[in-house]
Specification:
Blueprint (H helix, E strand, L loop, with lengths): L4 H48 L7 H30 L15 E2 L7 E2 L9 H16 L5 E6 L6 H21 L7 E7 L10 H7 L1 E6 L1
Parallel strand pairs: 3-4
Antiparallel strand pairs: 1-5, 2-5, 3-5
Helix pairs in contact: 3-4
């Protein structure tokens, strides 16, 4: 009987090939497992990162406080600028807060007080009517020198209100001069919020305190 070597080795080759494919498939699964695990970890980390993100919202009171602080910084910068300009006009000396330089007494010639809108120093139409009457009175009393006092309500910093009061008194003085009053008879001063006409803490009181009033030197 002749032994057929080719036929006897064929089953062995089939088994070997089958085992080889199984090993490769198994190896591929094992190799891909770490990558899948890594991808899954990254996805979880992304989810955890999103979950850990907290949006911080500021309260209305906090926003209002920050806005007020910003306004105060702007105002203080404006005051410093005005002081430098004032110092330049007066040989290096600022007179914005020189409230002790003049000791005014109440006027006896009946000069009217004028009022201003919040944070304003321009002379309104109503104020111009009052100033026109004051100009005629001052011109009729040639021996009188008048102190033009600028005042503010309590809101804002003390320095800012001193500067604003100075602007108000200067505006009133310029208008009187434009009506023919001798400038040498007029002196400006700012009291800021230091001398309120009404001690209240509401709009009614504040509207009375935003003013320029007149007194005799």
């Amino acid at each position: 009987m002749r032994f057929n070597f080719k036929l006897s080795i064929l089953p062995i080759l089939v088994v070997a090939v089958t085992l080889g494919f199984s090993a490769c498939a198994s190896s591929g699964k094992k190799a891909s497992a770490p990558a899948a695990e890594k991808a899954g970890t990254a996805t979880e980390a992304k989810k955890d990162g999103n979950a850990g993100t907290v949006e911080v919202k500021q309260s209305p009171d906090e926003l209002a406080r920050q806005q007020q602080e910003e306004q105060d910084r702007v105002r203080e910068a404006e005051i410093e600028r005005m002081k430098k300009e004032e110092a330049g006009r007066n040989g290096g000396k600022s007179e914005l807060a020189s409230t002790s330089a003049i000791s005014p007494t109440s006027t006896n010639i009946g000069l009217g007080t004028i009022y201003f809108d919040f944070d304003k120093y321009d002379v309104s139409a109503t104020a111009r009517e009052t100033l026109a009457k004051n100009a005629e009175t001052v011109k009729a009393n040639s021996g009188v020198k008048v102190v033009v006092e600028g005042h503010c309500d309590e809101r804002g910093t003390a320095e800012y209100n001193l500067a604003l009061g100075e602007r108000r008194s200067t505006s009133a003085k310029k208008y009187l001069v434009s009506l023919g009053v001798d400038e040498s008879r007029l002196y400006t001063i700012s009291y800021g919020e230091e001398k309120p006409a009404d001690a209240g803490h509401n709009e009614v009181a504040w509207s009375k305190n935003r003013r320029v009033q007149f007194s005799e030197e």
